[in-house]
Design a protein that fits this description.
This protein is of the alpha+beta class. It is built from 4 helices and 7 strands; from the N terminus they run H-E-H-E-E-E-H-E-E-E-H. The relative contact order is 0.17. InterPro entries: PRC_barrel-like_sf (IPR011033).
Length: 136
């Protein structure tokens, strides 16, 4: 970080120029989700988890509430998991709402016994607005 001392007039000019920039040019980024690591668990690389371990896993939100269960995996052409079909019906209050969660939507943790805990870093509203999974 560089600190620059400005005179009062230079500061006034700088502020005036900043205010003159159209608002459309400014972008805001959403704050990152805060995930509290479950007691006794450590973060695990998604690529180290087998499809058998992921299928049937329970997904939680960042507050520890159960979101749903992974019912199936979406496998890409390179045999990598590109999505997890997750039934979030009860969590979002909509009948039969299965969505494709992407690996970037999930943080996975493992404890010493090898048990997994998956945490979705998307909100209830985002899950509700995701399109329903359709077979491909």
């Amino acid at each position: 970080m560089r600190i620059v001392k400005l005179s009062a007039s230079a500061l006034a000019v700088s502020l005036a120029l900043t205010a003159a920039v159209p608002a459309i040019a400014q972008t805001a980024t959403a704050p990152a989700a805060v995930v509290v690591v479950p007691d006794g668990y450590t973060i695990t690389e998604f690529t180290t988890i087998t499809p058998e371990q992921m299928t049937g896993a329970t997904i939680y939100d960042t507050e520890g509430n159960e979101v749903g269960k992974i019912t199936n995996l979406v496998i890409g052409p390179d045999n990598a998991v590109t999505g997890m079909v997750t039934d979030v019906s009860t969590f979002v209050g909509v009948e039969k709402h299965e969505v494709d969660l992407k690996p970037e939507h999930i943080h996975v943790y493992r404890n010493a016994a090898g048990d997994l805990r998956a945490v979705a870093v998307v909100t209830r509203e985002e899950l509700k607005e995701m399109p329903v999974h359709t077979e491909r």
